[in-house]
Amino acid sequence: MTELIDPVDRKALDRVVADLEAAWNAGDGSAFGKPFSDNADFVTIRAEHFHGWDAIAGGHAAIFRTIYAQSVNHCTVESERLLRPDVALMHVRSVLDVPSGPLAGRHNAIFSMVLTRESPGWQIASFHNTVRPPSVPV
Amino acid sequence: MTELIDPVDRKALDRVVADLEAAWNAGDGSAFGKPFSDNADFVTIRAEHFHGWDAIAGGHAAIFRTIYAQSVNHCTVESERLLRPDVALMHVRSVLDVPSGPLAGRHNAIFSMVLTRESPGWQIASFHNTVRPPSVPV
Q: Are A132 and B46 an interchain contact pair (Cβ–Cβ within 8 Å)?
């Protein structure tokens, strides 16, 4: 069962992606963590599995100070659908430019997110990210 | 909101993972695709995004004949929770041993799945896989 997304929900879901992108580009770990639920699951491109808002916000604050300092992330929503009226599935392509350090260069990735509609609005319950190997065409 | 999983649902969800593992180890693409919904999303370790049963079953049939021929996959459920009474989120660790070819060796990965309860039972709506780089401890 897949439900159509009405324009209001689509706008709110796209806003979550825009907020993540803005938080990344501001190097703001706390803002990055904000759309996540307290017990969210987060799988990194290194297959690490973090749980909860604190770990997600804190982990991002750390990488924004170090390996991804001054990096610029550009996100494009590839697909979004409702699995239930209050459960959304999104797939987002990201292009990350890292200016310096061990990861300097451009990195392409795709992340999926599952969001649930809660009283404050849509919250991310699950985030999973995979980087595209250089051998795979964009 | 997270709901507890009752034993019947837990058994059914764990069975989906066991079925995927058995299908992989039998090299059976059709069986591998069976638990997926018709319009499922599938993200590979190469950040490729496939849609639908046909692409998932066909793609796996192809890799079972080639790069992953005779490989053995061992899956362990790491976590599972209900996002709604009829929507489950699972995280599964996999250890894949490939006997020969360009990918010979052991590969560790984590995949997440979102499953929805449909009339035939639990079906996979979303599957996302990330391989662990050798530099990351197990």
A: yes
